[in-house]
Amino acid sequence: MDKQIKEKVEKLLKENKQGLIIQDISDKLNFSRITISIALAELRGENKIEIREIGQAKLHFLKED
To answer: If exposure means fewest CB atoms within 10 Å of the residue's CB, which of 16, 30, 35, 40 is most exposed?
Structure first.
């Protein structure tokens, strides 16, 4: 995964503390949902984000330092 894509996703999540779904991230950054999903999976593996399920939606949040 391109490090710049992960950095852009991190920055976007930092700016949107209410959380975002994959489609919102994809629309704002103009990357495919698959690319965003991979970036989010890597960030989750690095323990940098958390995911909250609300109904069928999954909101992605950047973990606070």
So the answer is: 30
What is the enclosing helix (H) or strand (E) of 52? Answer: strand 49-54
Q: What is the CATH number of the domain that holds 15?
A: 1.10.10.10
| % of the chain with per-residue pLDDT over 90 | 94
Amino acid in position 55: G
The domain total for the chain is 1
Average pLDDT over residues 14-31: 97
Helix (H) or strand (E) holding 62: strand 57-62
